[in-house]
Amino acid sequence: MASLAVRIGPLELRNPVLSASGTFGHGLEMRAFTPPESVGGLVSKTVTVRPRPGNPAPRICETGAGFLNSIGLENKGIDHYVREVLPTMADADTVVVTNIGGESVEEFVQLAERLDGEGAVAMLEVNLSCPNVQGGKLPFATRPEMAEAVIGAVRAATSKPILAKLSPNVSDIAAMARAVEGAGADGVTAVNTLLGMAVDWRTGKPGLGTVQGGYSGPAIKPVALRCAWACARAVSIPVVGCGGIAGVDDALEYLAVGCTAVQVGTSSFSDPGLPGRIAGEMAERLDAAGVAAVTDLVGSIRDGSVRDGAGAPAAPRGGGPCASRT
Amino acid sequence: MRRPRGRPQVEPAVPFAAASFADGRARTRGILPRVPAPPPDARSALAAVVSVEPCGDDGALVRLRPPEALPPVRASRFFMLRREDGTSPLIPRPFSIYRQPDGDLEFLVKVMGRGTRALAEAPVGAPVRVIGPLGNGWPTLDGEGDPWVLLGGGIGCAPFYLAIRQALAGMDGAAPVPPEGVTYLFGAATAGLLYDLDAVRALGARVEPATDDGSAGFRGNVLQLLERLQAEGQVPRRVRLLACGPEPMLEAVRDHALDRGLDCWLSLESLMGCGVGICNGCPVPTEPEGPLGAWPNAKCCVEGPVFEARAIASCG
Predict the structure, then answer these.
(1) Chain A touched by B288 (CB under 8 Å)
(2) Is the bond leading into A191 cis (omega within 30 degrees of zero)?
(3) What is the DSSP letter of A3?
(4) CATH number, position B204
(5) Among A78, A261, A270, B12, which is least packed by CB within 10 angstroms?
(6) ipTM of this complex
(7) Check whether domain A6-296 has CATH 3.20.20.70, yes or no
(8) pLDDT score, position A134
(9) Cβ–Cβ contact B38 with A under 8 A
(10) Which residues of A touch B (CB under 8 A)?
(11) For B241-290, what is each residue's pLDDT tens digit?
């Protein structure tokens, strides 16, 4: 059996499959569908300093090829999270990642300090990139110096490893990745949702209560894959790919472009058993391709200059990613 | 009664309840999980289409065979359904359990667009992802208090076939409801949208149809019909109400019940992303001083879809 373990900073993950923030609750309540021990990690829904009741309905809108949401980070705040949620996560047999969101550097610091002493939390994911707050302005995700300020301050406030979650809604995501690497992030999560919207021209009614929101699902995979690849080329810390993963092959594609791990998001709504299933199928897929360790696949894309040295896995005859040939 | 806009953010006094009423056991409010969670009996399974029968002008009865038969499911609980052969949209759609014939799951599907059409046109054998049973379901329909009046509007009839059957058979160890103790008022725009009317009539309870165009039964809506029957002395003034239907109907039923101080439960339909409490896409505004606690939204999927009328500030 192919070895699936990967490392992010000081942490070893049993396999490279995690849940994506906001699409899996806190993770543990989903154990009847995806047991915690079946995945590499569980990423919580974003926790904020104060309770947030979230955005007005409608908050979700499926479109022709994907899914729009504008939840607005509904959550009960850090006090509730520490008091009610974390005790249930203490025995979770997986890497527990808490995703934190703030509207100022100070709020991010406050959250990081609060969680630093919480043993149940193995890693923080810093949500620099939610499109559904602050009017979609994405201040921390679009300006490298602001991302650097947040990550630097969080780095100083916690001993836990940090993932910086980036937005695809930028012109140069590599610059963002370099900025957070320089500020001390242990890894980069690429990417959050794309800004999007829907409207009914007959009624003039927008699909979301906030008009614009975050676009996700298999439709965004090529966009997100490029973002992840651009990050992987730009930094030497691990990149966690996220966007449109609906099956094990999607996950392996992210590894091929240089990601160390992946997060499964919207497709967990199609089947909450999916993260566990993807992780379960991964060894079999690698065995069939003659890949001994999942880490051998990382960055193996040809002519994509993600890494030096290690050879690509044996390419199967024919095939290729272009559906036009099928 | 409406919540003023812009209410202050408050720390909730009561954690979210994720109620589960598997196989018809009593509704208990004693043990609440610390985080909102899908019901413990919910599973994700791949079922196969056994049959699809047309029903009414635009509906279908879709019968699915899960890999393992489920215990009896409480009426007005639901399942998320999605074909897994590439024909369904990305997000599954919620459907009330309609019947459970011989261990299969049967759903009444009104064709509204891509998601419902994929199910209504599924060939025998097509694989369908089935996530459930989800949500809470109707309260215990007992035969000991005021009579029950069930108000169904259009496809909102889906949770009532099983409700009548379970009420007449006895739920949760309570006294069964005698046939004269339950009146089902089934309204629709027109006769062809009174889905499966003959089957529900055959259950033995009193069933009175109503149509907007008068093509079958009473001409008018179910609340007008209720008031007519009460004026004629055929239904008492003190009743317990269950309702499921379009949002304006539910708002009217809610106002009717609150004005008269009647016990009333509403089964809400909401857009849902996941059905299991993780996407926060199905908020229902809660009554600030109501039984759901201080948090301004309830999750329709795990705290509903059945809500007490007094617990919510609006139906969507």
Answers:
(1) no
(2) yes
(3) B
(4) 3.40.50.80
(5) B12
(6) 0.93
(7) yes
(8) 72
(9) yes
(10) 22-26, 28-30, 32-33, 45, 50-54, 57-62, 66-67, 69, 71, 74, 76-77, 79-80, 84-85, 87-88, 217-218, 266-273
(11) 999 999 999 999 999 999 999 999 999 989 999 999 999 999 999 998 88
